[in-house]
Design goal:
This protein is of the alpha+beta class and 622 residues long. It is built from 22 helices and 18 strands. The protein has 6 domains: 33 residues; 127 residues, Triger factor/SurA peptide-binding fold; 48 residues; 127 residues, no CATH class; 115 residues; 106 residues, Chitinase A, domain 3 (Roll), CATH 3.10.50. Helix 12 crosses helix 16. The longest helix is centred in the middle third of the chain and has 34 residues. The protein is globular.
Length: 622
């Protein structure tokens, strides 16, 4: 046979085939042959442009690394939801593709020389102030990039930043707009409200059995139980191996002596702060503007504690005047700690410091040094530390045994007996989860509804719930979806009907009261809660009611209104007066506010641009 192949390979057809292969290699590389039958399906398509699955996986890995770094050295990787990370990264890649396409359509360009300049001027790639190739490659390797991959990412990000900068730098606000916004922000109102609860009406409302039956008949086809499983499981807990009584006094004494040799007196600082939170009601620029405003007041002699009580969004310290007490550096987030431990004099106040929680104004109240603990003071903690270290080793050993025993066993009896564990049973769990700790874990859900467990009734591999617990599960009972019976649905349907009828009845009643008040009548049975001079952050007025009050026009007073509250109750509102602030801004404050508001407007316009690109794009997620 080999001779036959050798003879045939000398023919003209064989030579043509070899020539074609050579040309293919020369023009397209070996990937062109391998990829003919194995091209991977892209993660998504954006206006006909593919997003490669390898880019998605690389992005997920990078995102995971960044989150674990933010979580600190004790981060637990099992707490990260890979499915959620993948969805988030894919949406970011889709948005990046849209923005790059938009920038290229507008003729934005980045030369290779400019990319080189960006790279060599990046401090992370420098040693002693100069670009270092080895440092460059080391940083990229730790981040999971090659130099070519990084250049392409840098090119895309810089291109999109050009368009974003065009929006941010071209937006502006006028002095009149700033003054109007400041007047609105510092406006106060005299308000009053009456809360009319739904509960009293609910207790007096009834529905007939026939109405409940009719609602059930109407919805019967859609009233289905979810598919569920009941799990058997064994739980391995590291804490079960912690036994301080097994640690000898000599071990504790040895660790104590080592601790004394390594002891460094840690400095603690007494600190107070004012937090201006970034949330759904206030973005980062608005929070910074408020923090800057308070900082200027403090520079002019305002009382720190009073401002903290009035404006701080930290519920734990605001009522105490912002006081946090003595804290070490390790108890604080990096930016906060850096600002605090750079202060030199008691009473120093920082400029606004940004953290993940918002903007802080920080005051240094005192400094003290830590003292060396005695053996008696440290013995308990050191004994527990040794016991936990030994428990960790034992836990890892038992985890490996659990994996072997579970894989080779037809049930959980053998693993439970060998490792002295208890076989327990879960409540029914659906694909969307359950209320117990197993039902809230995405990895358990994925395993429970896999073919290995659901169809073949195998044991799962050990699933790490967190850094201290692992579980092996198997399906004990499979509960297919079925139609809910009338008896099972009756109470919920009855409550729904009663709530709808009571809400309608209450709304009709308070609407009549509103009409009477607007007609000038006095309703003596209403007990009004009144607050004079309320501002937009006044805690004396419930937040949802306060927002409604500042949304009412003030053409004439008193002004009455009606609103439904989130708990189903209703509130009658009375706006009695509006006081316009006459605060004059300094030139410095005016320039700062114009800059901040202009940037906010530019960011909003840019986000509208991104939303428009998404709405007009053809996006296919695979």
């Amino acid at each position: 046979m080999l001779q036959s192949i050798r003879d045939n390979s000398k023919g003209i057809i064989a030579k043509i085939i070899v020539g074609l292969i050579a040309i293919t290699f020369a023009l397209f590389g070996v990937e062109s042959l391998i990829g003919l039958g194995s091209k991977e399906k892209p993660a998504a398509e954006v206006n006909g442009e593919d997003i490669a699955r390898i880019d998605l996986m690389r992005g997920v890995d990078l995102q995971r690394r960044q989150l674990l770094m933010q979580m600190g050295p004790d981060a637990d990787p099992t707490l990260l939801d890979d499915a959620l990370l993948e969805r988030r990264v894919l949406e970011n890649l889709i948005e990046q593709a849209l923005l790059v396409q938009s920038a290229e359509r507008q003729g934005l360009f980045l030369s290779e020389e400019m990319l080189d300049q960006y790279i060599v001027s990046t401090p992370d790639f420098q040693v002693n102030g100069r670009f270092d190739r080895n440092q460059f490659e080391l940083v990229l390797r730790n981040a999971g990039f090659t130099p070519l991959m990084y250049r392409e990412l840098l090119r895309k990000e810089t291109l999109t930043d050009q368009e974003r900068a065009a929006y941010l730098l071209s937006s502006f606000t006028t002095q009149d707009e700033v003054e109007r916004i400041v007047r609105l922000d510092q406006q106060t109102r005299d308000v009053a409200w009456v809360r009319i609860p739904l509960l009293d009406v609910l207790n007096d409302t009834q529905v007939a059995e026939s109405e409940i039956q009719a609602l059930y008949d109407q919805r019967a086809s859609s009233l289905q139980t979810p598919e569920q499983v009941v799990l058997e499981y064994v739980l391995l807990d590291r804490n079960d191996f912690v036994d301080p009584s097994l640690v000898s006094d000599d071990e504790v004494r040895g660790i104590y002596e080592q601790m004394l040799r390594d002891f460094v007196s840690e400095e603690e600082r007494s600190v107070s702060h004012i937090l201006i939170e970034v949330d759904g009601q206030r973005d980062a620029l608005a929070a910074l503007a408020k923090a800057q405003e308070l900082y200027l007041e403090l520079q002019e002699g305002a009382d720190f504690a009073e401002l903290a009580r009035s404006y701080s969004d930290d519920p734990g310290s605001a009522s105490q005047g912002g006081v946090l007490g003595y804290l070490g550096r390790e108890a604080l987030v990096d930016a906060f700690a850096d600002a605090l431990f750079q202060m030199e004099q008691e009473g120093d106040i920082s400029e606004p410091v940004q953290t993940e929680f918002g903007y802080h104004l920080i005051r240094l109240d005192g400094v003290r040094k830590g003292e060396r603990p005695s053996f008696e003071e440290a013995a308990y903690d050191l004994r527990l530390e040794i016991a936990e270290r030994e428990a960790e080793m034992r836990y890892v050993e038992q985890m490996e045994r659990l994996a072997d025993l579970s894989f080779s066993s037809a049930d959980l009896i053998v693993p439970a007996e060998e490792l002295d564990l208890v076989i327990e049973r879960s409540e029914p769990i659906s694909r969307d989860g359950g209320s117990d700790f197993l039902g809230r874990n995405s990895r358990v859900l994925e395993a429970a509804f896999s073919q290995d467990l659901l169809r073949d009734r195998l044991n799962s591999l050990p699933i790490e719930l967190d850094r201290e617990r692992a579980v092996v599960v198997r399906v004990r009972e499979h509960l297919p979806s079925r139609q809910i019976t009338f008896d099972e649905a009756r109470d919920e349907l009855e409550l729904e009907l009663i709530t709808a009828r009571a809400t309608e009845k209450l709304e009709q009643q308070v609407s009549e009261w509103l009409s009477a008040l607007q007609a000038g009548e006095t309703l003596d049975h209403l007990q009004w809660s009144e607050v004079a001079g309320a501002d937009r952050a006044d805690s004396r007025v419930p937040s949802e009611i306060r927002q409604r009050f500042f949304g009412l026009s003030a053409d004439s007073t008193p002004r009455y209104d009606l609103m439904a509250l989130r708990d189903g109750s209703f509130a009658l509102l009375r706006l009695d007066a509006v006081e316009h602030a006459q605060t004059a801004l300094s030139d410095e404050e005016m320039a700062l506010m114009m800059s901040l508001l202009g940037a906010t407007l530019g960011q909003q316009e840019y986000q509208n641009r991104v939303d428009s690109l998404r709405s007009q794009a053809t996006i296919k997620r695979n």
